[in-house]
Amino acid sequence: MNVVDCSILIPCFNKEEFLDECISSIARQTKQPKEIILVHDQCDEPKAHALADTIILRDNVGVAKVRDIAFKYSTSPLVLFLDADDVLSPDYLEKMILVLADGADIIYPDTFFWDWQGEGSSIFVTPDDLTPAYVKKHKRTTLPVTCLMKREVYEKVGGFREFPVLEDLDFFLRAMCNDYTFKKAQTLLWYRQTQGTRNSADHRKKREVYDQILSQFQITDKKITYG
User: Fold this and answer.
1) Which residue blocks in 15-114 are alpha helix, DSSP H?
2) CA-CA distance, 10 to 19, in Å (whole number)?
3) Neighbours of 103 (CB within 10 A)
4) Helical segments of 74-192, H only
5) Is pLDDT at 196 greater than 70 in this prediction?
6) What is the reported pLDDT for 209?
7) pTM
8) Best CA proximity match to 153, nearest among 185, 127, 114, 179
9) What are the chain's domains?
């Protein structure tokens, strides 16, 4: 078996029904991670998984702290965060490792926003190159949280900060402040859309958080700085 020294970190809050499919997509990887760490955030029916080191929290602490707990239990020089209801293409880790070897700090995929309930629309997204000029023009990033990154990136940036939504936008902007580089791998994340999740929050709430995050940064065509 081809094993790479990578930790896949899965926060779970009442998404146990999707965990088998999520972790099965890891088991099908052409390159296997060294470890999978699953953290239940006070789930109603938490379950240990045979393929993962499982941590069950008695109190609900939120996704940012859950990711940090998973990170602190991990041991690999590379980490990949994966939501408990998403699915990886079989070549996901292999393609990301190849791009990382070419010289980058954070590797991101194409994303299929998967409307599994048949409501709304499903969308395929190929992210643009993430540069300060792109962020200045569009006032956003298009990256999913399911990126492969060097351990030192998470440590230097300081992990995810707690927001009602969009904590990944805040993380990636802070990574850009630290001059970390981003590259895309030719692989696909299946991003499941469900009703009642944080990312289905009403538009006004998301906009308020979005404005709060962006207000912390100074953005020019060549540089993003914090404060």
Assistant:
1) 16-27, 63-73, 92-101
2) 9
3) 8
4) 92-101, 132-138, 151-157, 167-177
5) no
6) 92
7) 0.92
8) 179
9) 3-226 (3.90.550.10)
